[in-house]
## 1
Amino acid sequence: MPELPEIEVLRETLAVRLDGRRPVGTSVRQFALVKTVDPPLEDLVDRAVVGARRHGKHLLLNFEGDLTLAIHLGIGGRLLLDDAMRKPPRSLSLEIEMDDRNALRVVELGTKKRSSVHLLRAALIEDHLRHLGVDALSPDLTVDRLAALLSKDRSQIKGFLEDQRRVAGIGNAYSDEILWEARLAPLRLTTTLEPPDVERLFTAIGTVIERALTHAREDNYLMVARGDERGTFLVHRREGQPCPQCGERIASIHYADNSLQYCPACQVEGRQYADRRLSRLLR
């Protein structure tokens, strides 16, 4: 699933390329994608793009007249800016043709159509994002705030990082990278973290996100109609390969829909988790 770094680079790109551009037409092929009916999508026609924002994994395109197009790309969503005359991919769900003969296209790869688009008036944006926690890239996420969030509820650190209600923008991939960077066991409970652990976790969030932003600026897979081919991870998707830090083989826990990767030596004191959900450490 797309996470903060790729969405942020998408925002940077569109903020420049769409600035001042005006839609000349809209077309919806996957009607379940658009979750709002008032105002209708056609109200975007002839309203200039005046900015692009982001909170967590949610992209917000601002238009004249206090309208905002809120886009969440779900699992297989991609956002293309193509020549409007180019034949769109079969997976096209939404197209907004612009006045420069380009088209903003939402495509959804795979069978799980979980992307969403809302057209909202400015007054409703805050309510639309109310369920989200502090953005992982925001200066409002301080060590003290992170410590308070961690101590609030008893949960596994991996799940905490992926919970958008606590810290918005981190998902399965970058939570693996962050926990490896911080040398923390993914199933360790948040309430057991000591101040040095919280400091390392806080630093790792910034380090991993900044590293990912650099890679995404070189090749953002969200802007092409292909799968997630990111090959820049140090631990995630590297099961069986040597840890870049110590050389131990990366291990995994597999779930029904995804998996997590970790280094037994760097994160779990040389032990391994049994490969089943909510497992205990093998002795």
## 2
Amino acid sequence: MVKAALEVRVVLTPGGARFVTPLTFEAITGNRATIDVWDEQPGASRMGHLELARWGDVLVVAPASADVIARLSLGLAGDMLTSVALASRAPLIIAPAMETEMWLHPATQQHLATLTERGATLVGPARGRLASGTEGEGRMAEPTTILEHVRQVLRRASDLAGLRVVVTAGPTVEAIDPVRFIGNRSSGKMGFAIAEEARDRGAGVLLITGPTALPDPANIDVIHVESAADMREALLDAMTLPGTDTSAGSRNADRGPGDSMKQPDVIVMAAAIADFRPASPVPQKIRREQALSLELVPTSDLAEEMAQLAPAAFHVGFALESANLVEGAREKLRRKGQQLVVANLVSDEHTPFGSDTNRVTFVSAADTLELPQMSKREVARKLWDEILRLRASS
């Protein structure tokens, strides 16, 4: 990394310092290596972990033992490394290194799944000779491989800078009476992951979400809605927001006649918006003794409407199919005027509802890209890579 002209600061765990001394890293990097949160060296700050956390553009943990992976997953802060990691908002790269049995243990795999769901990048491990002298999976990835992932993360960190993105997420609920409603099983996790990935890559993000159990993401403007009609109103409002500032958290609802207007650059319709609503919601709770008959009427096709209102934007839709996945997605792509559809196949073996993972297929006018099952954050990362590729080729 030093040879690649990156500025590097090293944080050692006490165990790591038993293998390589801090002085070695100081000589290589030109910066003091840190071990103890309570560093007693002259001039050292008592808040050094916060300064390091704010300083770095990328946090690389290499080699990452099973122990430190577990502590990072649980959010512990018992030493300098985990304290920096907990305070840092920089992208996290983890390069595991351990014996095969420890690598394959369900606890390790669960901790890694948690970290990747939060957006961490996993590099390796490779297969080869291990510390015990045996051959197997668990060897740390080569330094050149880790460096290349650092470069990719640094490129990604700003590849959406200047773009204004609107993401819809979660379900909508359509009232039957003040208590009951028609809804669906969407958890909102996929849409939230897409919004968070866009934010982390430099975009200004507006997230319009139906009712979910998820907390509002930091540094993202969030509008909460309930019904499809509420979602439509929020989307229409998003078509005419001021465009002078596209940084995260820049949304300003106070618009004057002199404001410059800018429509979104990308609209991702990840919400599971109801196709039908009760024709006449009842103003009072329906009693059990009353006969109940529902007349349903169609809601507006918001994806198609947004494509017409913002023709210069890149439009992404979602398709949930139980058969003929690609054909159904391509038909929706054509009918709604979108440039990309993320297709999910629902079956007895797989459902995306409420899960932290997803298995999707990207369908565009010319291409089809089938992804294996992965965390929803990883799907979001692949999605923005594909959006950028298609925007560049159009």
## 3
Amino acid sequence: MAPSPFAGDVSERRIWGRGATDMKGPIAAMLEALALLGRAGISPCGEVLLTLAADEETGGALGTGYLAGCDLLGPADAGICGEPTSLDAVVASRGRLWLEITTLGRSAHSSRPDLGENAITAMVRVLEALERLALPTDEHPLVGHATLTPTVVAGGASANSVPDRCTVTLDRRFLPSESAASALRQIAELVERVGVEHHFDIQLSEQGRLDASEIDEASEIVSVVQAATQEMARQPARIAGMAGSTDARFLIGAGIPTVIFGPGDLADAHTVDESISIDALIEGCLCYAATICRFLGVRQ
């Protein structure tokens, strides 16, 4: 029998359930790390602030973004964003821009297409131009290339009508060296050019943006995480990047050097049989606790 997605079943030394890896696992490991230090009577020479936000998947504006905007996260010397990184030290992530392009036509009976203006045909021209769009060619050593992907398309109302509206959603992933504004400007110029050239009425709207983030891999918090992982998990914390976006960008934007780090494999996230190993949770807990002690020091 398949594990229930909401039961948190334990079998094969794994916890099964929706969000077990992303990111209830890292949260549990962080909470247990603090409890472990308390039970051991260990007092760090500094303050640890743990924040839990529920809207990272939808942009984070009402969670970590709000805390950062209200200056409730600092001053802080460093941060850890708990994500399933397989205990790699992630120092860079791509940004995300979601755009919606709509072509507007004029409806008519499909037996007389000459009396209408086909919005789907217009969208084909837009997509052809987007296919030829020259994205930045530089490759980031940790997060790869910039990408542009049409992800949702909707158009037409019936089989015997010329469609007067077609909409496409675009997913534009950009590098830390780019900005959301420059990525948006490039596509806006393309849309305007196609509209003028083919005499189409085309609308462009932004549906959401998540900034890219990056910190120097020589940052103290990175080296401390690496040392703690080597000590507790007996494995090196490799310097890595993440193709997606995280709440770390809010902390980095607030001037807090933040490493993305935690137990669990990102490949297990958002899957129908999501799970995380108990051994990974234990290692994550020990690594978080050791990082706190190493970074802040311990009162004798």
